[in-house]
From TrEMBL:
Subcellular location: Secreted
Protein name, as recorded: Calcium-binding protein
Chain segments annotated as coiled-coil in the UniProt record: none
Taxonomic placement: Archaea, Methanobacteriati, Methanobacteriota, Stenosarchaea group, Halobacteria
Keyword Cytoplasm listed: no
Gene3D superfamilies found in the cross-reference section: TSP type-3 repeat
Organism: Halocatena marina
Keyword Phosphoprotein annotated: no
Length: 217
């Protein structure tokens, strides 16, 4: 096929026209109006929230739920957790949003990621389904994960044992009787969640520490 070669200016115009056509259907993440609201963290693993940090047990179940609303379309909602060094994408779901109502997204897990403990960030990240990894919006919570074999309060009893026995794994003396939970669990006649196990008017701590008596029942 014959023809005249395109001049430099014509090549530029053709390339510009192609770029405009290709970009016409692409909306950047910054241009999308999207929000994540009513972000909740619940489940057997949740202990308590203090100063915006939720304490959880790593071996028990949890559920993350939130509502996504904004510009109509299909989006990818991902549960992401970790810290600056180790960030993990746990699960992603496609969420369809329409103009008339918000969409609820829920992630239910039987336990927290293996080998992940201590202070972590749990985020719900929303991205365009056909875009890059650039997030449209993100909502995050701070958690502190207690490992089952760890001893958060340093009382000599593992976190898992304390949960099993119904005592507080973040308090080394749950009943405040002067004996650590670990000590009381080793005594056959003392209960770590009852300050005066035998009801004689003397706390277990006084009976053991002052009178050197293990007869707290």
């Amino acid at each position: 096929m014959s023809g005249y070669p395109l001049s430099g200016s014509r090549v530029y115009l053709v390339m510009l026209a192609c770029m405009l056509v290709l970009s016409a259907g692409i909306v950047s993440a910054a241009q999308v109006d999207m929000s994540v609201d009513e972000y909740t963290l619940t489940g057997d693993s949740v202990l308590e929230t203090e100063e915006d940090i939720t304490y959880v047990t790593g071996w028990q179940s949890y559920s993350v739920e939130a509502t996504v609303e904004g510009d109509p379309g299909a989006y990818q909602a991902c549960l992401v957790m970790g810290d600056a060094v180790d960030e993990r994408e746990i699960e992603c779901k496609v969420v369809g949003v329409n103009a008339s109502q918000s969409e609820t997204v829920n992630f239910e897990k039987s336990e927290w990621p293996e080998n992940m403990s201590g202070r972590q960030t749990v985020s719900l990240v929303v991205r365009d389904t056909n875009a890059s990894d650039e997030p449209i919006t993100t909502s995050s919570k701070q958690v502190n994960i207690l490992g089952e074999n760890g001893d958060y309060d340093g009382d000599g009893a593992s976190n898992r044992v304390e949960i099993r026995e119904g005592i507080e794994p973040r308090n080394d003396d749950t009943d405040g009787d002067g004996l650590s939970d670990g000590e009381e669990l080793k005594l056959p006649t003392a209960l770590p969640n009852k300050s005066d196990t035998d009801g004689d008017g003397l706390s277990d701590g006084i009976e053991v520490n002052k009178y050197d008596s293990a007869q707290t029942k």
